[in-house]
């Protein structure tokens, strides 16, 4: 069972989410106290090839130095290549049960937005579930309709004790409602990546 405390403040970021050098942004967030980091390379400015491998490897070293787990979004081959701590999968990615043996003792996250997706998901190897979007979000074009904190509470009842992290439109003004409705932690993209002061942004969530 995954340590739920690692989900407290889960930062997701990729090259398209910031105008700064990505590893520098990650290091600032790590130094300020994030508890988990996911590299999510999507969008027009996403890295590929050797540049992606080099950047992911640099971020892995940073996360290791702060003893913070490092997750790769979707790209399980990259995650295995750089020896990341795990992978996060969406409903349209490789099925959890089809992941290579490398992930048998790694963190495996799965996005589950509603009861229908939950019913069709094999959770045997899933370490935690990402649920949302809780609120409307500009960070993910394919995020779907907001489920609201009530939807989060409904999902908690269905999921049971498995670690669950809330995602989607979460800010310092609304994150407590996520925790009060069953989330073990929160996932944040733009509220940290686009903040004028990353340290201050992280501290406002902690």
Automatic annotation (TrEMBL):
| Name of the gene | thiE
Q: Which cofactor does it need?
A: Mg(2+)
Protein name per the record: Thiamine-phosphate synthase
Identify its protein family. Belongs to the thiamine-phosphate synthase family.
Q: Which residues form the OTU domain?
A: 176-206
This entry's comment on the bound cofactor is:
Binds 1 Mg(2+) ion per subunit.
> Which PROSITE patterns does this one have?
OTU
**CDD domains for this protein:** TMP_TenI (cd00564)
Q: Pfam families under this entry? A: TMP-TENI
